Amino acid sequence: MSKVLMIFVLLVVSSCKKEESTYNPYKSTSTKATVSNDVLFSYDNKEYKEENLPKAIRFAKYRAEHAQYTEFSNSIRELYVRVSYMQERQMTDYYGRKGVVPSLSELFKADIDDDDVKKYYKDNPQLFKNINPKKDKDWLERVRYTRTIEYITNRYLTKLNEIVDKKKLVINILPPNIKEIGVDFDKFPRIGAKDSKFELIAVTNYFCPECRKVNKDISKLFSEFGKDLSYVHVGHTYNLGDVSMDSILAGKCITKSDPKKFWKYQRFMFENENAKGIKVFDKKKMKKLLSLAVKKLEINKKDFYECMDTKERKYEVSESILFFRDLNIKEIPAYFLNGRHISYREMGSLVFAFREMKSRLERLDEIKK
């Protein structure tokens, strides 16, 4: 009996050894590492790591990481807004499909009836100047679409603010840091200490309505955070040579003349009603506006316009514009807290989005400790 058992054990051991020594053409036998972990790629025997990436690759990497972050974080917010409303409406099982969360349109479809749509049409005539109920048989559905979008958006933002404020939804991922791609933000106008706890960078424009509207929130942030906050102004436009570029150029020249006067110029441009109606390439009106600003700020007119006309200054401004265009910043204003993009549009408010990102940065710093 013992001999039989010994033969069986030998057979098992032998088969195991054979299995281990079986040749695998897909498995490398080399134990030598050919590339270190921090090398992203190499070209012509030159290795590239995070710290020495070419400018174009740094930009591409930032764009890709930002797009991924945006889609991921927005998906998280949108899902848990829907989950929260589903729970609130006691929809524990959506049409017998467990684990399926209804879309926002499905959640609120029953809230908007024909009477509500007709009232919305009556209360908002400015939105429906091209709709005539007597001539357009589909007018009710066209109005319903606009009403539904507004209704859902308002409820989405209300619920998002609620679940974030109550810390029911806590997001622990960060967008890529714009300060790590090589731009020198020290060359742009700044209010507050350079080493402040919170640095808000604004990529903005004096003429876009949204920029003028959201700029008012900056005062609220300074009231709340005081000396802990610094603000960096980056003028931007999508058209080289337009009035916005002239306004950025003017800001550079005013800063050169007297850095303290830039912020008076900035306030003048954001608050002056004449700036609202200036068209993109209306140079005549823009010149009148700048002349008014120069006079109000007591800037030497001759020196100012000579500065505006220098190739060096124009190149500096156009280089900045192209830099942010290459980053694929599709909408302005765009805001960054300590280098991290703030999704103020998705959050419905710059102040709320600032607080949420501030909490996230502080929470992740604590986790690292």
From TrEMBL:
Thioredoxin-like fold domain mapped to chain residues: 190-343
Coiled coil: none
Domain of life of the native organism: Bacteria
InterPro entries assigned: Thioredoxin-like_fold, Thioredoxin-like_sf
Pfam name, any one: Thioredoxin_4
Extent of the signal sequence: none
Protein name in the entry: Thioredoxin-like fold domain-containing protein
Species whose genome carries this gene: Halobacteriovorax marinus
